[in-house]
Amino acid sequence: MPEIRITKKFHFEMAHVLHGYDGLCQNIHGHSYGLEITLSGKPINSPGHPKDGMIMDFHELKMLVNKHIIQVFDHSLLISNRFNEEQQKAFREVTSRLFVVEFQPTTENILVYIASILLPLLPENVSLYSIRLYETATSYAEWFATDNP
Fold this sequence. Notes:
Blueprint: E1 4-16, E2 29-41, H1 58-73, E3 76-80, H2 85-94, E4 98-101, H3 107-118, E5 126-136, E6 139-144
Parallel strand pairs: 1-3, 3-4
Antiparallel strand pairs: 1-2, 2-5, 5-6
């Protein structure tokens, strides 16, 4: 049975602030993020099975990503824990969906974080091949499993 790749696209809205940045991104601003998750594996080879020929049911992938990524980040404000307690309190006054992370919330770091969330959640016979995260229509970062053993 050949190795196959499948990709599912997602979309979410999120704001972030880059602590100490020397440009406009030091301010709260938002993006319409596009997320592409690509999985690889050998399709199920079980004639008569309802999922015969699938690597992973697209619906199952959708539910997994929605629960662990989209519902967490959508319409939230992502900030670094580099902001002190007083600053974090001020952000909490702006939104009830504040998400404080241990990294500068660049597209690249968000991408690595998403990979770390998804990797342990995938079925045994399925591999995370790549992730692409669009910050804008013309700017994205990519993560490939082959680059991250």
